[in-house]
């Protein structure tokens, strides 16, 4: 987004700047050249006229001396006409029309002096007495003294300097305007893109009602309409999926609910049967024992299904109170797996949480250890680690293949499909849901040397 | 123990097996298959305890319980499929003394029935009066009054109030209260205590939201002010 805006701006400004500089420089050079040529033409014409008309009219000898020149009155003539003149005569100081010009002759470019000495009419742009000037020099009739006519062009140069300044200021202003215009254009061009970005962000965040405003019928408008159609299709599909999912969940809840009444009868019946198993003949007794066990399994499954469907209904609320984690770990372990070793911190760890859910989590983790690592030593460890409470249950059983570690928290996931234990396959999923409700999470890791460690991590609130 | 129990349950299997279990435990059991029949039976013969399913056809268990309470202080134990707090609240409000969550194992039910009967049979052992703030408790008459006006308390609420008042200033944990009031000798549902306390407060406190007589001690339990 910023990239496009920057590129657009830079490109537009560069284009405008280049155009302005080229046009300005071209126009300036053209003006400067023509003005200089004009001045040069006038100065050349004056020099030619004076060297071919004014000087010869004095009837000087072919090699005039200083005295001849001074006596001829040429100096006065030029002075009167306002033409600054230097006359370089062999054998004496240069004759000048103005006292300011004494000492200028040696500062003239040697190139000019040489060409004038060769009888050419030559000129040079120099600075005389601090002023930009045009000097035109020549000899009268191709020999004799050298005449240098000095024209003050400072007014012209000043005008050119002003023109330069005006052009530079103009160019800068033009570039600034171009910058503003470029930004405005970029904003205008990118506004729909940004709106689309915001809409996409909202959709990403789960708000499927987000749409891009269709403000033009150009390519962007077409694109926006297509985007909106896509969002609508997405919302439709997800809506259908959600409806199907909700129907599924209702079905699970209904099934679990419908199972409750026959299950309640079964549980009561099995509880009576269990007390009289010894009175049955051996074969019937075995069948009775299995029946009692299986009723227990069915009860666990239905209870877990009910619990899962309560989570799915999103109707769960938590009731926090100060809970002594050590006490809770001790009592739950004593009830569920008394053989497990307890590793508790030296000081009581009392935190506001929902004790019922915490009991359920630890109970399910212990059930899982008992189920999948039958007979192996189990350890329950409570600690505060990096600002979180860590409650971990470690067994020394077969562990879980690493690629399936994360899947053990899925519903009905069985690490070993051939195993027929008393668990519903929902215990860890339920524990994970409870952990999430308490603001924490469960992680699983295989232990070096075999065994599985499932850890509950809770923020200390 | 030759106590007479009325079992009102619509599911035939549960009704039959529960009756078998209770009879084996030494009780005399009469059964009814819906609320109306239950009420009729209750009116016709004397009973020591009524086991009431909440979800009953024709007249539900809560209605039956309310109807029984209008004329009798017999022990009532509700059988509820949903042990949600809302069911517990509504059940206790209707005047039930306890509830048993379905599915239940018969020995568990028998234990709860025995506990409820023990409490119901607990006679007035002290001809004494206790006081909690403006509340006067008449142990002999099993009634509580405020400024001479009788407060309608259920048996459970009365027992709870008495127990707390006897140990005024002392914190009683939920488990202690479960044990002493409901007679559970195993880990029960401490929500029962919370709900009963709320019900009691609603009847005796001037402002149940800001109790001044029965206080909650966070993480520990409840206590009556001295």
The end-to-end span of chain A amounts to: 41 Å
The secondary-structure class of chain A comes to alpha+beta
Q: What is the oligomer described by this structure?
A: heterodimer
> How many β-strands of chain B, per DSSP?
11
Largest interface: A-B, 21 and 20 residues
The whole-number mean of residue pLDDT values of chain A reads 87
What's the CATH architecture name of the largest domain in chain B?
3-Layer(aba) Sandwich
* CATH topology tier name of the largest domain in chain B: Rossmann fold
Total beta-strand segments of chain A: 12
Count of helical stretches of chain A: 10
Notes on the protein architecture:
The complex is a heterodimer of chains A (461) and B (226). By secondary structure, chain A is an alpha+beta fold. Chain A folds into 3 domains: 2-162, Beta-Lactamase (2-Layer Sandwich); 241-313, Signal transduction histidine kinase, dimerisation/phosphotransfer (DHp) domain (Helix Hairpins), CATH 1.10.287; 321-459, Histidine kinase-like ATPase, C-terminal domain (Heat Shock Protein 90). Helix content of chain A is 56%, strand content 15%. Chain A is built from 10 helices and 12 strands. Chain A has helices spanning 2-54, 66-72, 74-81, 110-117, 154-204, 219-275, 282-313, 325-336, 355-372, 427-437, and strands spanning 84-88, 95-96, 122-128, 131-139, 146-152, 321-324, 341-343, 350-353, 379-385, 388-394, 441-446, 452-459. Chain A has a 5-stranded antiparallel sheet, with helices on both faces. With 226 residues, chain B is α/β, with parallel strands linked by helices. Helix content of chain B is 42%, strand content 21%. Chain B has helices spanning 12-24, 35-44, 61-71, 85-93, 106-121, 155-166, 174-182, 191-204; strands spanning 4-8, 28-32, 49-53, 75-80, 98-101, 129-132, 135-138, 143-146, 149-151, 214-217, 221-224. In chain B, the strands form 3 sheets. In chain B, strands 2-1-3-4-5 form a 5-stranded parallel sheet, with helices on both faces. A 4-stranded antiparallel sheet of chain B has the order 6-7-8-9, covered by helices on one side. In chain B, strands 10-11 form a two-stranded antiparallel ribbon. Chain A binds chain B through residues 260-272, 275, 299, 321-324, 335, 350, and chain B through 11, 13-14, 17-18, 20-21, 24, 81, 102-109, 187, 218-219.
């Amino acid at each position: 987004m910023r990239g496009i805006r920057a590129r657009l701006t830079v490109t537009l400004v560069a284009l405008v700047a280049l155009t302005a500089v080229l046009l300005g420089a071209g126009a300036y050079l053209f003006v400067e050249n023509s003005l200089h040529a004009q001045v040069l033409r006038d100065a050349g014409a004056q020099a030619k006229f004076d060297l071919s008309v004014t000087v010869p009219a004095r009837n000087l000898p072919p090699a005039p001396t200083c005295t001849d020149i001074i006596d001829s009155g040429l100096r006065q003539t030029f002075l009167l006409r306002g033409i600054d003149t230097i006359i370089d005569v062999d054998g004496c100081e240069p004759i000048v029309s103005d006292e300011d010009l004494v000492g200028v002759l040696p500062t003239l470019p040697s190139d000019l002096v040489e060409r004038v000495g060769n009888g050419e009419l030559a000129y040079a742009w120099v600075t005389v007495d601090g002023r930009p000037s045009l000097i035109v020099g020549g000899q009268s009739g191709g020999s004799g003294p050298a005449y240098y006519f000095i024209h003050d062009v400072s007014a012209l140069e000043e005008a050119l300097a002003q023109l330069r300044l005006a052009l530079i200021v103009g160019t800068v202003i033009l570039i600034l305007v171009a910058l503003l215009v470029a930004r405005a254009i970029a904003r205008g061009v990118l506004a729909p893109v940004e709106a689309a970005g915001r809409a996409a962000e909202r959709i990403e965040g789960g708000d499927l009602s987000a749409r891009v405003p269709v403000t033009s019928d150009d390519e962007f408008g077409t694109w926006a309409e297509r985007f909106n159609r896509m969002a609508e299709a997405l919302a439709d599909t997800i809506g259908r999926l959600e409806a199907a999912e909700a129907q599924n969940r209702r079905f699970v809840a209904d099934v679990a609910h419908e199972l409750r009444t026959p299950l309640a009868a079964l549980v009561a019946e099995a509880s009576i049967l269990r007390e009289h198993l010894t009175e049955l003949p051996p074969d019937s007794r075995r069948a009775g024992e299995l029946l009692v066990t299986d009723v227990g399994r069915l009860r666990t499954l239905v209870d877990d299904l009910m619990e899962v469907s309560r989570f799915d209904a999103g109707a769960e609320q938590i009731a926090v109170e100060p809970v002594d984690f050590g006490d809770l770990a001790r009592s739950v372990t004593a009830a569920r797996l008394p053989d497990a070793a307890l590793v508790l911190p030296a000081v009581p760890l009392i935190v506001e949480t929902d004790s019922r859910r915490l009991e359920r989590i630890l109970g399910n983790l212990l059930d899982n250890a008992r189920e999948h690592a039958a007979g192996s030593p189990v350890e329950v460890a409570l600690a505060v680690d990096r600002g979180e409470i860590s409650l971990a249950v470690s067994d020394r059983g077969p562990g879980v293949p690493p690629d399936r570690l994360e899947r053990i928290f899925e519903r009905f996931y069985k690490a070993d499909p051939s195993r027929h234990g008393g668990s519903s396959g929902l215990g860890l999923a339920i524990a994970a849901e409870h952990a999430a409700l308490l603001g924490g999470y469960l992680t699983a890791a295989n232990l070096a040397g075999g065994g599985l460690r499932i850890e509950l991590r809770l923020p200390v609130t | 123990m030759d106590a007479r129990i009325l079992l009102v349950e619509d599911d035939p299997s549960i009704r039959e097996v529960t009756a078998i279990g209770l009879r084996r435990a030494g009780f005399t059991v009469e059964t009814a298959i819906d609320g109306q029949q239950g009420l009729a039976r209750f009116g016709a013969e004397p009973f020591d305890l009524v086991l009431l399913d909440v979800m009953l056809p024709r007249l539900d268990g809560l209605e039956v319980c309310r109807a029984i309470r209008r004329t009798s202080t017999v022990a009532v134990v509700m059988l509820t499929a949903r042990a949600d707090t809302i069911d517990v609240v509504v059940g206790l409000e209707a005047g039930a003394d306890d509830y048993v969550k379905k599915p239940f194992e018969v020995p568990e039910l028998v234990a709860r029935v025995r506990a409820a009967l023990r409490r119901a049979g607990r006679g007035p052992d002290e001809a004494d009066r206790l006081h909690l703030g403006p509340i006067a408790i008449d142990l002999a008459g099993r009634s509580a009054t405020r400024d001479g006006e009788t407060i309608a308390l259920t048996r459970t609420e009365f027992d709870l109030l008495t127990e707390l008042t006897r140990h005024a200033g002392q914190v009683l944990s939920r488990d202690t209260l479960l044990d002493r009031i409901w007679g559970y000798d195993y880990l029960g549902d401490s929500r029962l205590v919370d709900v009963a306390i709320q019900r009691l407060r609603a009847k005796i406190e001037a402002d149940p939201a800001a109790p001044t007589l029965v206080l909650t001690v966070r993480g520990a339990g409840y206590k009556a002010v001295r």
